[in-house]
Each structure stands twice: as C-alpha cells, then as structure tokens.
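User: For a benchmark we're assembling, each entry needs the component sequences followed by a predicted structure for the full assembly. Here are entry 17's components. Please fill in the structure.
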Amino acid sequence: MKRYLLRRAGASLITLIAASMVVFIGVRSLPGNMAVALSGENGSAAALAAITKEFGLDKPLVIQYVDWVGQLLRGHLGVSPQTGLTVSSELAQRVPVTLELTVLSILLGIVIGIPAGIGAAVRRGKALDYASNAVALFGLSVPSFWFGILLILLFSVKFHIFPSSGYVSLFSNPVENLKDMVMPVVVLGSGVAAILMRQMRAGMLETLRSDYVRTARAKGLSEKVVIGKHALRNSITAVVTVLGLQFGVLLSGVAVTEQVFLLPGLGRLTIDAVFQRDYPTLEAVALLVATSYIVINFLVDVVYSVLNPRIRLAGGSA
Amino acid sequence: MTSLLEVEGLCVTFGSGAGAVRAVRDLDLSVESGEIVALVGESGCGKSLTALTLMRLTPPSARVQGSVKYRGDQILDDKGLKIKALRGKEIAMVFQEPMTSLNPSYTVGDQIAESIRLHLKLPRKQAAKQAIELLRRVRIAAPEQRAKAYPHQLSGGMRQRVMMAIALSCDPKLLILDEPTTALDVTTQAQVLEIVDELRKEANTGVILITHDLGVVADLADKVVIMYAGSTVEKAPVESIYSRPSHPYTRGLLAAIPRRTDGVRKRLDEIPGTVPIVRELPSGCIFADRCSCVEVDCRGAVPKLEMIEDEHYCACWHPQIEVETVSL
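Assistant: Structure for entry 17:
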C-alpha cells in the first residue's frame, strides 16, 4: 500500500508541474495583455512600456515562467495590478466562500444521491426507482442559472424566506451565512445528487447480480446487511471517482451560480480577472483549482486502496 | 417418520400466458438425515434452479409452486420468510462458481466468521477462532494465515473449500451443493467430496448434491434423481440406477462416462442432439427426439413418472427393465 501511495503521489507531483505550465502559457496567451488593460485603450506608449517593464512582460516566456515559479516556491502569489492587493489576501477572502459552497453542495449531493441510488437499485422497476430517475433527469437537464433564478423568484421575491443575494461570513454570523447558502447549495447540490444517484444505482444493480451477494443471502444475512455491507462496499468505488471529479467541477464551475446569487467567491474573482487580464490573480486561481483537482484525485486513489484489497495488497496495477 | 426435506410437485415458471416457461416441472424429492441425494442432468435441465428455489434465491421473476417441507414444516410461503430464518443455519448451500462467490472486499476469515456471529451469536474473537478451525476442517493448510487472505489471493480449490467452511459454519442439517467440484481439478474434487462424505457420516447431515458427473454420484450418493429439461425422468437408489438404468436418457448418461477399456481404443458414447429449449418442448415424451429407442407412441402423450420396481421410478413409455450391469 505504501508503494502504491508513493507512486500515486509521485504521479500527482508530475501532473502538478505540467498543470502549472499549462496554466501559465494559457493565461499569458489570452488575446490582449495585462499592460494594455492597465494603461487603458488610449494609454500612452511610454506608460505601456513602463508597465510592460515593471511586470517583466518584455522578457521571454520561459524566463517569465521561471520567475513566477520562483516566486511561488517562496510563497508569493504576486500582487494584483488592478487592486494593488496581494493575490494571497484576495484568495483568503474568496476561497472560503467557494469552498463552503462546494463542500455543502457535495454533502447535499451525497445525502440525497447515494440513498436514492441505493433505493432505486433495490426497488428496481418500482415507483421509487421511477421517481428517483425522473428527479435525477430533472436535476441533470435544468441549467443551474435558470434553477437559481427560479428559486430566487419563489423563495426571495414571493415568500421572503431566503435572501436573494449577498454573503455573510460563516464565522461572523453562522445563521445568516447558512441562510445565504441554502439556495445556491440546492442549485449545485441537486446536480451532484443526480449524478451520484445514477452512478450509485448502476453500480448497485451490477453488484446485486453478483455471485457473492447471492452467497451473502445464502448465509442468512438480512437484506440490510447484504446491501449495506456486501453490495455497498463493492459498488461505491465508481461513486467515489465521480465524487472526486464533481468536487473539481464544482470548484471551477461555480462561477455562474456565484454570479446568480452574487456570492463573492472564486468564480467572480476569476471572471473579473479574465476581463482585466490580471495575470497574477488568474494564474493563482487556475493553479489553485488545478492543485485541488490533483489533490482530490490522489485522495480518491487513497480511498480506492482502502476499499479494494486487490489494489492495497498488489502494490497497485492501476 | 417425517423426512428432513420433502419436496412435492415443485414447479418453477418464468413469464406467464403463452410465453410462460416451465423450467422445473413437478419435482418430487425427499432427503433424510445422513443421506446424499444426487440431482443429475445436463446443463440447463433445471437442477441448479431447483437448488436456488429450495433456498428461495431465485430471481424475483420466477414463480414457484408446490410444497417444500423441512422437518414436516411447510417452508414454501409467499414471502419466503420461513426459509430466510433457516438459511445459512439449518440449510446451507455451496455454489458452482468458487471464483466469484466470495466477496472480494473482505478476508475469507471475516466471511466465515460473519455467519458464525450471526447464527451462533458468538463474540467477534471467538468467531474468528472458530473460522480458523473450520478452515482446518476443510483441509486448508496454515489456516491462521489463510484466514487473513482475501479471495483473490487463493486458488479456485481453496476458495471452494472456504465456501464449504462457510456452509459448515453453523452445522447445517441440510447441505445443498450445486456442482461443487465442476470448476476444480481432480485432486481437489476428491478432497471436497471426502469432506462431504465425512460430514454425512459424522454430523448426520442430509445432502443434495447437484452434478452432471455420474462418476461422482456412484461413490457418494444414496439416491439419484435424473432430470431432463426440467422434468424428472428417473429416480432410484444409486445401486438400481447403475445396475438397472431404465430410462434411455440415464443409459445414455452412463454410457458417456469415460472408462478404461483395457487398451481397446473406442470412441466415447454420446447422446445425439442437445437439450431442447424449455420453451419449445416436443409433444409427448420430451426425450423422444434424442432417444435411441423411440417408438411411434412416444410422441403421443407425456409419460408419467411411475414405479417400475421398489423405490425405482421412471418416466418412459418403454422402460428397459432387464438387468444390464454397467461397470465403472
């Protein structure tokens, strides 16, 4: 198991380095550049040149990359030329919002999706199965911005239960914070639940047909143990994979929902940074998301090896 | 005296109306304690389905009719609650596929102990100890280490012995073995069958042994039921089956057993054709199309299972009653 994890960790590190290059090149090859955006459409040539020089944009791309990585390794994410604030202080404000939104949405997805998937598989072809499938199809096909607006119309405008927008930190006022989060979490969580439910149902159906589930029944185990222990452990692997992917998708994809509910998270920061060609901020956000993806993938591998003795003991053929 | 297991008129049907498939028809069977009853037939004749039906592990689409009495108590109820209470404890089963019948995520020791903890209510530690004892009983070397192994680390023969250990864990009164040795090599086969024989003698366990191998049956079984396309074609004590096989199908099966012929090279006998699809059974005798001694009247009506001598039943319009010794 140790060897397996070491190998996965090594692979993660290589992926991370590759990701940093892609992020850097991607950001710097956006049409338009930071100097132009800063000096304005009608900025003087002298100002443009000064800005270019100040941020090292005149150097070759390779040198720029090395400079950037050197800074990163010393813990500096740079300063946003737009706001004059350090990128790390900006992230410190934005990350908790997006992280909270993501974690709560994933939790909601798990709480609804996994039991619904198990239930649908166990009651295959019955009312519960059809109902879950119908709800899942709805969750998958409805665009999040439309669903979000619908919720605002219903619960903010009509019934005044939840605020339509705004954000209070979890630490300053937990109750208000959670009230702010309810609708965006429902929007994002319903999509996650739908995906998890379908994955869980498919995995469970396959496992329930297996010979060892029949063995478990032949032992006289109750249906609860047969499903909850013997079938669940073997069918949840695929769900863990999807869960990991969803986490990444949410981290990078909450922009629309954050915009709808005016939450000051990473999504809005990214959009603003793109428009202003704010290289340091954009690079930091992209690298952060890439790193989370990689870390989560690594965690998924760890969970795999815990769930599956064939990986744990073989030293990993994956 | 009530039998350990008494099956009467067992029918298993899939689908309904014109498309209904009767996969097991009118099966009668009785098993006494300490007795081994063999259920023999080709693939697809309904023998495994019969076993699954007795355990009520059939797919939900299967419709089961008839009567199954365990120690005189009807256990074939609507919801299968009666059998649930007996499964694994009084009635245990070993399946045909040792490679896939164990859960890949738990050690074999855990999987044996699970049964013990459930039925005998032993604490975890004691159950684990007993699991090791069971592994020793099914002749697994170094049982302490093997108990910690996962199924993928064991060979097919070992896995099947682990399945046996699970089945034996709570001293069942009735053991159903569904082709327990089909997937195993000859040496392991012999060991598994030895365990079965020992169990019958020492614990007085009743056994239903499902197999397509009449060679296995000869050494072990007390009674033999020959099935063909879902129906019983012959049923008799093991000596009668071998010394006076009456149904042409049984004789065909016996002739198909490979045996030493003192240097004379001879092609193995076979039964021509294949088992008919249960949905498209011929009218009259279901074996008529493949029978070597078929006559015109065989195509008329279905022959009933009738007693042709003491305890010897045969479903054939022209049963062969003369003595014809088949040597093995």
